[in-house]
Amino acid sequence: MTAPIEKPARKTGLAHFLAAAGYSIGGARRLLRESAFRQELLGLVVLAVLFAIVGATLPEFLGLAVLSLIVLAVEALNTAIEELVDNASPGWSEFAKNAKDMGSFAVMCTLLATGLYAGWVVIW
Cβ-count burial of 78 within 10 angstroms (0-12 exposed, 13-18 middle, 19+ buried)? Predict the structure, then answer.
């Protein structure tokens, strides 16, 4: 039997900040392997180009940037939920389906909000 793996010592100060930045980069790398994340990223870039074409103002671009970050953050949380559920419940279960469906719904809500905002900026 193998010995349990010890939890690493907690970092503080600048070391904690640098470690957290490394964890964030690792999360971004993991997300880039998700096709949904890549599609959302591409869609958000297309919206930014469309905003430039229609002459959106700086505040309108900032609104798109904030909504884009929210979309990507919620997608990251959805992916985390899916990973945890897949690990905790390898077989099919109602619990797993519900958890994944709710995460997907959260992503859909942020995409809808971004789409409504983009439509408002482009049309008006």
Answer: buried
**Integer Cα distance of 46 and 123 in angstroms:** 16
When divided into structural domains, the chain yields a total of: 1
Distance CA 98, CA 106 (A): 12
pLDDT at 1: 60
pTM: 0.85
Known catalytic residues are: 75
**In a domain? residue 20:** no
Predicted confidence (pLDDT) at residue 70 exceeds the cutoff of 70? yes
39: domain CATH number? Answer: 1.10.287.3610
Domain membership of residue 28 (yes or no) is no
